[in-house]
Structure formats: C-alpha cells, structure tokens
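Q: I'm writing a short explainer about Enoyl-(Acyl-carrier-protein) reductase for a general audience and would like to include a description of its predicted shape. Could you first generate the structure from this sequence?
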Amino acid sequence: MALARSVAVKLINRSISAASIFSLEWAGARRVQAQRVRAFSALMSPPSKAVVYEREGPPDSVIKMIELPPVEVKENDVCVKMLAAPINPSDINRIEGVYPVRPKVPAVGGYEGVGEVYSVGSAVTRLAPGDWVIPSPPSSGTWQSYVVKDQSVWHKVSKDSPMEYAATIIVNPLTALRMLEDFTTLNSGDSIVQNGATSIVGQCIIQIARHRGIHSINIIRDRAGSDEAKEKLKGLGADEVFTESQLEVKNVKGLLANLPEPALGFNCVGGNSASKVLKFLSQGGTMVTYGGMSKKPITVSTSAFIFKVSPDIPVPSRCCYTRRILVRHGREMYSNVQKNLKPKA
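A: Of course. Here's the predicted structure. Afterward I'll give you a sentence or two in plain language.
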C-alpha cells in the first residue's frame, strides 16, 4: 500500500503537459481516427486524461499522465466518465509485469471502477446518460477520465451505492463470495480461518460469513496499530482475531474457545503464514490460496499434508483464479454481494 500511495502522490504532484513526448503507437492512430471522423460529425468522446505506461517496470518510473484525443463513439459504444477507480495491488503487479494476466503495453492502468454514462451510440437502448456503470467483467484501462467501450462491457449499478463501494465491488467482494461458496459446503454455525484479514477480500469474507451465521477466525501481521485493526475487524463481525505471534503456541486450537474447527481456510500471504492457517483446519479441511503477498513459497508441514489435506480434491485444484470466476459469474453475483456488505456508518 505504501507503493500505491507513492504512485498516487507522484501522479498528483507531477505536472505533465499534453504536449509531452508520448510515443504510444495507438495514441497516434487515435488522433488520426479522430481527425477523420470529425469531418462526418460523428459522435465523439471528450479528450481524456489517462495514466499510461509504455513499458513494464516500477510504477514510479514507468507511468505518466497524458491527455488522449477524442475518439469516435460507435453505434454500440458507451462513453463513460469515470468517477472513481481504485489502486489494487494487482494493478501495481500488472504495471510491474509480474501479474499473469495483464494488457499488452503500451496500456492505460486500472482494472475496475465506477463511472457515469456521458453519451451512447445510436444502437444502445439499455443505458442512458447519467446512469452509473461498472465494467463487468473487469477490463483494463479505467485510470482515465473517459472510457469508450462496447455496451456489453458495462453493467448498470444503483446510484444509491456509496461511490467507493461501487468502484470496488467487482474484484475483491466477488472473490470473497466465490471462495465461500465454491470449495466446500458451509452451514450456519460452521467456521472459516484466514490470514491477510485486513485486506479488502478478508474484510468482505468476514462480513459475508457473519451474514450467513458462519464464524471467522482471522490472522493479521504483527505491526503498529494491530490492536486497532483487531477492533475494526471485530466491528465487521469477526469472531476471533490473532496476530501471527499469538499463534506461536503448540496447540492453536486451544485458542478457539467454543468455536468449531474450521473446515475451510483462505491464504493470501504464503510463507509461514499459510502454515498457521493449516494449523487451525479440521482433519480433511481445505485451504484455498488466492494470493502471495509475502512473495514466499507456501510452507506446509508433513503432518498437515497427511492429516489435514482433503483426500478427494487434488492440491493443484485448490487455487482461486479470480479472473475466470469474474468472467463466468460477475454480473449475477453483484446484487448478492451488495446486499451482504455492511453499509458505511
């Protein structure tokens, strides 16, 4: 997150003229196209400020803000004025070139967000100027002021939603929902365990689980402010929150009090933190790995493989490929997640 903040600050503080040298091939093509269609009075988008990168690398070195020329809004297109777009860790990883699914460079940053329909093509009937929309499934290029894409990309959302919720509803909350539903059957009164509990996915898991009567056991890093983080998570519905150092005991299950042993665990950290999730699992339980923020290999003890791993599911199948999930289920899950998430106080 420090890196994300650094990127945001550098963008705000950096004043880049529209006349700055910018060698993106498609930018030149975009200008030519815009000049050609103006002669026919075609519907055009406004000029757009965009955060772009010509090559992959450290974000503070490779990104720049430029102004892109207007583009044609074709008959099936929708021009959207972006209202808000988050900086997710995966956005940074795409710019760095280390994320498995990423756009070809040169590219505009961003992968989700919320915008307001500015104009529509002549064949568009289900959306109108003023509607709020999100790209569903997510698509690259949301870090710009205006986005023109086919109407099939855009999904209408309620304007009653807080803007920051609408801007972040697709990637993280839907990942949380699918992981709670796709790997084992959970009933009211069951338990789950997770590390990285302060992440957005972690917070969504807590809220959805509590809504369904499922207990959550949560692991966070030892750091300044951990007591405040514990209180925040408990306010969202967490049953137990432990720092990693609190789990340096022989029998972690003795910390559960009256909670049942979890049948499902979530790991987004890797390294030794993954082994702490496994320690809580019931025999035959399942650990789902959906991230590796520590950038370290998962550490699993031999006893965990023998006694904890569910025998009917091969280990490689227990990963969560978020992009595939969102492509298949994104729109139908939106309303479900929106109902489950706790509104802002």
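A: For your explainer, you could say: Residues 322-340 form the longest helix (19 residues).
Q: Perfect, that's easy to follow.
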